[in-house]
């Protein structure tokens, strides 16, 4: 994993993105050079636009999931991912190609060649990543512990999109007699930890045990491994890196206070607010035709009102009224008792099912973003009734209110729709990761992921 702007990115995916970007960039330069013999000056004039074009196209397709292959990708998933990338990329490629300045380079002669090369790269990469799924390199991981936590670590790594981390075995911890992993995968403990690491060519150690009286592993042995160049991670750091979560079950208040992240400085807030205003206004203008059609459809099917307002809890616990297109019957809560909406809620209208699946019902919240009550990206705003309940049942739930709630968020693109306290716990772990690490880079990534989720229908609510 690489850490870019406080966010973890799989090293193999980053290498594939970089390789494809260079390949597409070089293809444009070759197409330019082929127009004239010895056209060095032409190539130099084309290079800036070629770099911008290659960057935009590869970023678009990485956001659409082209580089999310893995051991569970079926042929259908691979074909769907390639088709989605091609359908999104080709029209945008033509548009971007025509907008960028190319100097004396003949666009009409070059654009077809470049777009064909782009399509070939996307198709090839989709099959390579989706069908084969083999990483460019693997890191060998040893897990300290044999109990439930160790088994959970193994399960998490098996379900990653990337197979770049390979568990080679489990090293028994001191005072840890629980066994929840296969016996044949437990490593002999007659040798020291450092000797076992060297014998199995280990690159990383994950300490997957709870702290117990007497210690679960000698700190000296772990320090010896770290000084020998082996990366050592605790459970909190592991889940943050590979799952994009801050796990509540391994979280302590001291870690929140003394650890990295959770910074809410004025500069970060100013950048985020500027981004919200500029991008939010642009999306609102582009979405107006869709919003008008939606308003008419709601009025025809179930009459007025078209919009639905509801109290939600925002930054610092302040209550505001969120604006959405009405997707339920007007008598959805006629008994006055707040209820979580479920994935197949019978209160949802026919138009409501469509606009909820495509997230169109959320578009009026852009007005909340422009007014400063919400952000484009952040934790999902909850109703005061549920906030009171969840704050009692879930530790650190109030931490999510240290930032503005969002139109979309890390939890929304990483976790399926849910309507229980257990689901709220899972989503909170993603929200805590966002609060800890949020940057403009992560906001842009989440917005791009939201586009992919809407286009593929994942996590529909």
Question: Can you give a write-up of this model?
Answer:
The chain is of the alpha/beta class and 461 residues long. The chain folds into 3 domains: 2-132, no CATH class; 139-243, NAD(P)-binding Rossmann-like Domain (Rossmann fold, 3-Layer(aba) Sandwich); 266-456, no CATH class. It has helices at 11-33, 40-63, 75-99, 107-132, 148-158, 193-199, 219-227, 235-242, 253-258, 266-302, 350-357, 365-371, 384-393, 410-414, 421-437, 440-456; strands spanning 2-4, 7-9, 139-144, 165-171, 204-207, 231-234, 307-313, 319-325, 375-377, 406-408. A 4-stranded parallel β-sheet has the order 4-3-5-6, with helices on both faces. The protein has a two-stranded antiparallel sheet with strand order 1-2. The longest helix has 37 residues, at 266-302.
Which terms summarize this structure?
single chain; 461 residues; alpha/beta; Rossmann fold; 16 helices; 52% helix
Name the helicity range.
Answer: 40-55%
For the terminal residues, how far apart are their CA atoms? 31 Å
Q: Helix and strand succession?
A: EEHHHHEHEHEHEHHHEEHHEHEHHH
What's the β-strand tally? 10
User: How big a fraction of the residues is strand?
Assistant: 5-15%
GO molecular function, one term: undecaprenyl-phosphate glucose phosphotransferase activity
Subcellular location: Membrane
InterPro entries: Bact_transf, EPS_sugar_tfrase, Sugar_tfrase_EpsB_2
Transmembrane segments: 12-34, 46-67, 79-100, 112-132, 277-300
């Amino acid at each position: 994993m690489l850490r870019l702007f406080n966010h973890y990115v799989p090293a193999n995916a980053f290498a594939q993105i970089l390789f494809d970007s260079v390949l597409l960039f070089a293809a444009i330069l070759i197409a330019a050079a082929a127009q004239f013999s010895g056209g060095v000056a032409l190539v130099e004039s084309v290079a800036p636009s070629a770099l911008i074009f290659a960057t935009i196209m590869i970023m678009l397709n990485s956001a659409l999931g082209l580089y999310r292959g893995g051991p569970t990708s079926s042929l259908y998933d691979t074909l769907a991912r390639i088709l989605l990338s091609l359908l999104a990329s080709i029209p945008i490629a033509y548009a971007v190609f025509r907008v960028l300045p190319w100097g004396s380079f003949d666009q009409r002669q070059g654009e077809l060649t470049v777009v064909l090369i782009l399509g070939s790269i996307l198709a090839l990469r989709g099959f390579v990543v989706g069908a084969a799924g083999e990483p460019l390199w693997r890191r060998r991981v040893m897990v300290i512990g044999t109990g439930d936590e160790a088994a959970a670590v193994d399960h998490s790594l098996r379900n990653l999109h990337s197979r770049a981390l390979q568990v080679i075995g489990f090293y028994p911890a001191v005072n840890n007699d629980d066994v929840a992993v296969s016996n044949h995968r437990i490593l002999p403990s007659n040798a020291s930890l450092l000797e076992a690491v060297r014998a199995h060519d280990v690159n990383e150690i994950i300490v997957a045990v709870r702290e117990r009286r007497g210690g679960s592993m000698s700190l000296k042995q772990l320090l010896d491994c770290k000084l020998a160049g082996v990366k050592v991670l605790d459970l909190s750091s592991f889940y943050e890196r590979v799952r994009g979560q801050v796990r509540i079950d391994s979280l302590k208040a001291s870690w929140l206070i003394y650890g990295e992240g959770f910074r809410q400085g004025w500069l970060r807030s100013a950048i985020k607010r500027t981004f919200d205003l500029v991008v939010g206004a642009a999306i609102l203008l582009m979405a107006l035709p869709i919003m008008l059609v939606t308003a008419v459809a709601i009025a025809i099917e179930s009459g007025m009102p078209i919009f639905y307002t509801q109290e939600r809890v925002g930054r610092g616990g302040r209550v505001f009224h969120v604006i959405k297109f009405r997707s339920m019957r007007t008598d959805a809560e006629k008994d006055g008792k707040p209820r979580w909406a479920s994935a197949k809620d019978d209160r949802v209208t026919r138009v409501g099912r469509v606009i909820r699946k495509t997230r169109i019902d959320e578009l009026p919240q852009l007005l909340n973003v422009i007014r400063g009550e919400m952000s484009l990206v952040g934790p999902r705003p909850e109703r005061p009734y549920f906030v009171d309940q969840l704050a009692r049942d879930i530790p650190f739930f109030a931490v999510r209110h240290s930032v503005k709630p969002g139109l979309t968020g890390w939890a929304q693109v990483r976790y399926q729709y849910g309507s229980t306290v257990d689901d709220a716990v899972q989503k909170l772990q993603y929200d805590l990761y966002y609060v800890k690490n949020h940057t403009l880079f992560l906001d842009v990534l989440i917005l791009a992921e939201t586009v992919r989720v809407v286009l593929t229908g994942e996590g529909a609510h």
